[in-house]
Specification:
By secondary structure, the protein is mainly α. The protein has one domain: Di-copper center containing domain from catechol oxidase (di-copper center containing domain from catechol oxidase), CATH 1.10.1280. The protein contains seven helices and two strands; from the N terminus they run E-H-H-H-H-H-H-H-E. The chain has a two-stranded parallel sheet. Helix 1 packs across helix 3, helix 3 crosses helix 7 and helix 4 packs across helix 7. The two termini are about 10 Å apart.
Length: about 290
Amino acid sequence: MYTRKNQSTLTSAERKAFVNAVLELKKRGGYDELVRTHIDFYVSDGDGGLRVAHMTPSFLPWHRQFLLQFERSLQQINPRVTVPYWDWTRDNSPASYLWADDFMGGNGRRGDLQVMTGPFAYAHGNWEIRANVTEDRFLARDLGRPNDPVILPPPADVLRALADPVYDVAPWNSTSRTGFRNQIEGWTPGSGNARFRTHNQVHRWVNGTMLGAAAVNDPVFWLHHAFIDRLWSSWQIGHPHSAQYLPAVPPPSGDPQHGRVAALDEPMPPFGVRPSALLDHSRIYQYA
């Protein structure tokens, strides 16, 4: 078992090891394969067919497996590397060390939002975006979106989600009004910026590459989702007598969600892993 740490507690050697492993995975082509996977499974609840990655109960176990796949790829390069997490309720400023030149790099420049600093800057020659839904080849950010300001989620929003005793509720999509899964994924009936909370709000705060299906092209994606996974772990510990995943059985024939969501023991493509197999990570990793 290994430990995933808060990125703010990493030593300079740990930051360097993580960055170097990510760059090597990119060089080998494995990183772009992960980007393509996320693009392929970025399906909204307005589309037909099975949803496993977003707007669905399996949002959390699917990304837990996705993180593990990434982490195991990094560990094939450096066995000591683990994925750190970004607690955006605390490190909630563009001045946070997360955005330092030796780690994630900084904000995008005015105009095209291209990131010019850090190891993932296109200009440095090691981070060309090849798997994308647009023609952009460079990493872009617009932290906080000054022209249409967005803040990072406050602790109160996280505490509200963690207090919900039910994992998920029908109709098992972005319109589910309660349930931990959608409260932490962050779809609401609001409009404008109010439509997006928690997980979704963070993507919008970073902006640029972090918006949409190709968000994995920004390495901060993994630190964000490691924190989401940590919050799910905290919810599980806090609600030991609750159903740890719902729906337990597939929605019946005639239900609008029949064949569209993964129940507890149904395999999630492309991994072929069931949500039930991902409820307990304690034998694999822990969080500091």
